[in-house]
Amino acid sequence: MRDLFMSTLRKAIAELLEQESFDLREISKRLHIKEREALDHLEHVARSVRPKRFIMEPACCLDCGFVFKKRDRLGTPGKCPICRSLSVSPPRFKILAPAKDIAHSVKKMAIGERLWKK
Ligand SMILES: [Zn+2]
C-alpha cells in the first residue's frame, strides 16, 4: 500500500511539472507533503522521467544575482557563495517533451519557413 502511495505521489509530481514549473515549496503545498519528502520524490522523478526531459531552472541569489548553474542537487541552497546572502530563490523544475519531438517540430517549422519565402 505504501508503495502504491509513493508511486501515485511521484506521478502527481510529474503531472504538475508537465503543466508548468514549480519549486519545492509549491510542490509540497500542492501535495500536502513536507518539502523534504517532496525533494526525495522529485529526485526519483528526475531519474525516471526519460524519454521526457527534467529541467531545472537554477536557484539564484536575490541580492547579487548569482546563478547556481553548476549545482546538480535539487534542494534550495542555504546561502550565496559570493555575497553570503541568505535570500536565495529556490530552483524551479519542469518536465518537457522528449528532445526528439522538439527537434522534429523545429525542423518542420524551418521547412515551412523556406516554402513561405519562395
Ligand atoms: Zn549573492
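^ zinc ion complex. DSSP finds four helices and five strands in the chain. The domain at 2-56+91-117 is CATH 1.10.10.10 (Arc Repressor Mutant, subunit A).
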